[in-house]
Design goal:
144 residues, mainly alpha, two-stranded antiparallel sheet, 72% helix, elongated
């Protein structure tokens, strides 16, 4: 069940990151933000990382997370603890990267993008659920 929740959260993340990616590559001309900070954040020098838009990195992260979570729900894989650890490690990296980006928004760019905040919340939720998956899996394995 926890991996299904992770998959659902990752799918939502795919849509958010895809929207930001489409804006960044010019597939859509205007980003609907309402607060005004989204364009400022997504056009700043911090909106690229190793030559690729941050949104593309987010899209890749969410797609990879979705794939691992969906594979982890198959009957032959649902008891594989390695997948729980992989999801926890992936989402920890995602949370750390998101925390860095949030810091940049608040203290360097001086603008906040609601989609970036939404993505930060999603990746944090994925991390918390993946940690629960690791902990619950361990407690199920230890005899009382």
């Amino acid at each position: 069940m926890r991996r299904m929740v992770i998959a659902a959260l990752a799918l939502i993340g795919v849509f958010v990151a895809l929207y930001l990616t489409m804006y960044k590559i010019g597939a859509i001309g205007h980003i609907a933000c309402g607060m005004g900070g989204c364009e400022r954040v997504n056009t700043s020098k911090w909106s690229t990382f190793f030559g690729a838009p941050v949104a593309v990195w987010g899209l890749a992260f969410y797609i990879a997370t979705l794939i691992v979570a969906v594979v982890g729900t198959s009957p032959s894989m649902m008891h594989r603890r390695e997948l729980s650890y992989l999801l926890a490690a992936m989402s920890l990296i995602g949370v750390a990267f998101s925390a860095w980006l949030t810091y940049l928004e608040f203290y360097v760019i001086d603008a906040v993008c609601r989609y970036c905040v939404t993505s930060a919340i999603i990746v944090t939720a994925i991390f918390l659920v993946s940690i629960a998956d690791v902990v619950m899996g361990r407690s199920a394995e230890t005899p009382e």
